[in-house]
Write a structure and sequence with these properties.
heterodimer; A: alpha/beta; 2 domains; 5 strands; B: Rossmann fold; Alpha-Beta Plaits; four-stranded antiparallel β-sheet; 12 helices; disordered N terminus
Chain lengths: ~425, ~325
Amino acid sequence: MITPIVRTAIVSLRRDRAALAMSFILPIAFFSIFATIFGGRHDSTPRVNVILVDEDHSRASLDLVRGLQREDSLVVLTRPQSKSKRAELLPEYTADSAEAAVKAGDAPVALIIPHGFGDHPISFGRDSDPAKGGVSIQLLNDSSDMIAPQMVAGLLQKAAMTAMSSVMAEEGIKRFDQYSGGFTPEQRKRIKAQIDQSRQQKNDGTASGSGFTSGLIAVQSRAVVGQSKRNPMVSFYAAAIGVMFLLFTASNSAGVLLDEAESGTLDRVLSSRVTMTTLLIGKLTYNTLLAFTQLTVMFLWASSVFKLDLFTHIPGFVVMGLCTAFAVAAFGMLLASLCHTRAQLGALSTLLILTMSAVGGSMFPRFLMPEAMQKAGLFTINAWAIDGFTKVFWRDLPIRELWPQVGVLLAVGIVLFVVARRIARRWEFA
Amino acid sequence: MNATSLPEAPPHSSSSLLESFPLEVVSLVKHFGQIQAVDGISLELRAGECLGLLGPNGAGKSTLIRSIVGRVIPDAGRVSVFGFPASTSEARSALGWVPQELALYPRLTCRENLAAFGRYHGLSGSQLAESVAWCLDWAALEDRAGDLAKNLSGGMKRRLNMAAGIIHRPRVVLMDEPTVGVDPQSRHRIFEMIEALRGNGASIIYTTHYMEEAERLCDRVAIIDHGRIIAQGSHDKLVHDTFASRSQVLAHFAGPPGVIEAWVERHAGQLVDGAAEFTIEDSTLIAGLLDDAARAGLELEDITLRRPNLESVFLHLTGRELRD
């Protein structure tokens, strides 16, 4: 008796495409996404953008810049990137423009090598204290990215030990000379020859590594974004989780259309003065308002329980909330119009929404992902919505700075709705 | 219930419209793939008339109704309502449709359902409130007005379904098997509602596969089979045209099928679902039929003599039961 039961279940599963998709495609899709992000794709390890400002232009600072530029894990930006071919005409970053760029989210970290760095590039404790006339490299960071500053700080020390080995040796000998009573002329000559040889080997690319390492360069870190936030990741997760569940709500709400088609209510409505376009616009409006209300409740909760600073960001929240709600509502309408049954809608929406949420940054920040994955995220509503909310709540940017996110979300919403309307023609007439 | 409160039909400015049939269907054709659902149907609905569409499931009744309300685009033919093409807003306003399905919002109350469909038809304000009140009264649902539609009994849902179809006070009402799945008491209640509607001058098309409903409610009946009207007229006319003054004999025999077939053919009868059917002028002829059957070696199991009705007409014309 067991065999017929198993056989019946297998045949039923084989004919239920929605269940098949949920059983096999969704796990494989998720495994692939997570494996790509965290797994063995070493060739696509995420590279960190770092803005570099060399105010010193000393031999030591140039060595350090070259050392950082040689790091595979870093993308060193010395001037703003431009999509136009006249990119080379853009001026190099200054300390101020670098700080502004970090605040705007162009890069998570900026390094400022100040004037005087080359005089004493190697830190010897009190020498780096600015109060005592010391000079430190400034590391400006966006505290929403907890990984990039740590990574850059570590690579900075590595670069110092490898690229500035001759400088380090020179500095060490200078200090030894100062505190030991002085070298003889012969000693000075031999030491200079050794340092020159080391520098030549490094320039030739034949240096063996860190033979002259001693001490570290002084770095002073400062968060330029989010430094005053009481609960730094709450705004990110409020947006990230909020958008993911908006997508589920929107597709479920749009699924009412399928219920109405099945019950005959849709036919009855369309036999009145209501046209399909009017009906769909009505449902889109409702679903948009529902999604916006859901977002509002979520952010109010985050504000009251997790101290998210909602009330000083009301205009930005309203703009981003409405645009996001519109885009997800249109997405739900498209899914509902594509499907013929609730079961199909359930399977398709789960598959798409979880995938979009994983790639688009609703499950973990996109800056953790490989570059290709980060670019793929731009094809999701999640990424644009999260970026917009981050601009509002994290970077405190004015509303006019939201235009890329607002533009994309509105355009996506309009396109999805137009496609949904076209597909919905199948309900209009038999 | 206040059946007399149905308002008068809105006046039409054009005298030609007043002369038009409330509903006219001309040579309507509709295919679904290889299936010909409607095959050249023509009919007229006269003012104040109730026209029954009688036919088995799958005969094409619902497709015809859905073509009239614009939910099906016919391949050929035309439909006009008071002279207006069916797709126009004038036609839509004049048409009310009670679909076979319970096309309601289950989580809305009776009152909210009626108000929603009223708004879809362009009603608002006091006009909407009056219509909702009238429909609740008409459907005897005033005391359940605040109940969710999903919590109503089957009969009440049917009544609410009907009320939602006439919320905008249409002059032509299309009812697609409105009594499906209801108990006899609810069915009786629905008949009263329809009669009240007729009493207020509405013209009605009523589809059913229940012969007794068509006989009770309809002035005329169009019998539909395989997408075609195979007979049309009043009950008496249909019966007379088919059987004249003859009666109908239905008999079941035990015996070899070939012998039964030969015997039936010899007496100009027909076999319908295993029963031998004859029409006879005089009941005394039954004795002769039975004698001949006995001589042929057939054993009589039961025999019925009956006055022909619409079901007899349908059986006679199609060779099939209405409820097939």
